[in-house]
Amino acid sequence: MDTTQLLKGALDLAILAVISVEDQYGYEIAKRLRDSGFTEIGDASVYGTLRRLEGSGSLKSYFMESEDGPNRKYYSITKPGQIELANAEKTWTDFSKTMASLLSESTLENKKGATK
């Protein structure tokens, strides 16, 4: 199954979850997502989502000096972002429980059919 569409739907939740742990800059966020298993995630998707989440008030940004080059734009989660994260987490948990239940039923039915 191609996970691209699943990731698009879950990218807001993933980014909010990463930033809720600590403030981070864009490249660091993208790297954290890739290290977590989202290997197909593109920088454009991450930065576009960051801009959108900042525009909606879920994130705020600030610049910090960097020893390695230009200033870095860090993102932090806002109170509305924390509420959005909590709601999205509940939605994701409910959805994944429902899918797990359906897949479990399917597996049981397939095993029954194989033994007939």
Automatic annotation (TrEMBL):
Domain Transcription regulator PadR N-terminal: 15-86
Gene3D superfamilies xrefs: Winged helix-like DNA-binding domain superfamily/Winged helix DNA-binding domain
InterPro entries tied to this protein: Metal_resp_DNA-bind_regulator, Tscrpt_reg_PadR_N, WH-like_DNA-bd_sf, WH_DNA-bd_sf
PANTHER family (UniProt xref): PADR-FAMILY TRANSCRIPTIONAL REGULATOR (PTHR33169), TRANSCRIPTIONAL REGULATOR RV3488 (PTHR33169:SF14)
Descriptive protein name: Unannotated protein
Taxon lineage: unclassified sequences, metagenomes, ecological metagenomes
